Amino acid sequence: MHPHDIHAERILVINPGSTSTKVALFTGLKKHAETTASHSTEDLHSFEHLLDQLFFREAVIHRFLRKHGWKVEDLDGVVGRGGMLHPLEGGIYEVSPDMLADLRSGRYGEHASNLGAALAREIADRADCPAYIVDPIVVDELDEPARLSGHPELPRRSVFHALNQRSVARLVAGKIGKAYEESRLIAAHMGGGITVGAHKDGRIIDVNNGLDGDGPFSPERTGSLPTGQMVSLCFRSGKSEEEVRRMIKGAGGVVAYCGTNDIRELISMIDESAVDIPAGAIPPSVVFEALCRQIAQAICAHGATLEGRVDAVILTGGMAHSTLLVDKIKSMCGWMAPVEVVPGEREMEALAEGAVRALRGDEQVREYIG
Predict the structure, then answer these.
(1) What is the pTM of this model?
(2) Which of 32, 175, 235, 310 has the fewest CB within 10 Å, making it most exposed?
(3) How many Å apart are CA 197 and CA 179, to the nearest integer?
C-alpha cells in the first residue's frame, strides 16, 4: 500500500465468466479502467479442464495491464470472483492453498468463477500482495428454519447472487441512513437466474437456490415446479437426468414459453401486432404477468421472514433496467416497503470495495479451510 495516501490502493479485479473475462483497475474505490474480453467456443474447447484455462486467461489480464500502463509489481491487492467452495459465511477471504485445492479438484462443482481465486493468487504472487475473494455464490447464512424443505433428505441449499445482493443492500442501507448490520431488507436479483434474499441485521437468512432454478421462473430457468408432475416427468418421459437438468436450467422459464431469454424481446412481443401468436400458445403478455407475479410473490413471502418489518425492497440485476417490469413489481409489493432500484450488477465494484475494506483493516479477512 502507498503509505503517503491511504486512498491510493491499486487494485486489480478479475471476474471470469463462461465465455468472457471481466477485468478492472481501481484506485481506491474509483474505477480507473474496465474491459470484458470475450473468448470463442473454439478457444475454450481446446482446454480439457476448466483450470487449464488459467494461463490463457492470465495473458488477457496482462495485456489489459500493459494497455493502461500498470505494472504487476505496483498492485496493492488482487481480488477475484469466488467460485464453488463449501458453504461459508459471507465476507472477505484470502486465497489459501485449501481454497485453490478445492477449486482445482471441482470438489463442490465446476463453474467459470472457480478461475477467479486462482487467477488472483497467480498475479498477486508476482506482485507480492494479498489475493482475495468476496462473497462467493456459496455464501450460506441461512437460519435453521430456512434449511427445511419438507423432507430431511432434501435440505435447502444457499447458492445465489451473494456478491451483488450484499453490495446493493449495503448501498441502499446507506441511502436510507442505516447501517447494513442494523437493516431489514429484501433484495431481488433478476438476471438469467433470479434470487430473492431476506437480509436481517447483516446476514442473508433465507434465499432461494438460484443455481438449481428454485424460486420464481426466470428468462431461462423453470423456478420451483409442481412436485408430483415433476416426479412423473422424470420417471415416465424417458428423459435422461442431463435432459431434465437442461430443461430446468437453460431451457426453462421465458425461453420455454416464448422462444427468447431476452426480457426486452419479450416486452416487444407483448404488442400483438409485433408477432402472430400460434393457436394454443401462451400470449407473451401472460408470460410477462406471471414472471412479475412470481418475483413479487417471492419478495412478499420474505415480508413474513422479516416479521413484517422491512426497511426497503431492492430490485437489481439486468432485468431491473426494464421500467415496465419494475413498475409492475412495484405495483404488487410496493405496499410492504419503499422499493429501491439498482439496475445491473455491481460485481466489479463490490469486489473492489471488499479489497479496500480488507487493505484498510475495516473488515476482518477470513480464512478458508477445506
Answers:
(1) 0.89
(2) 235
(3) 18
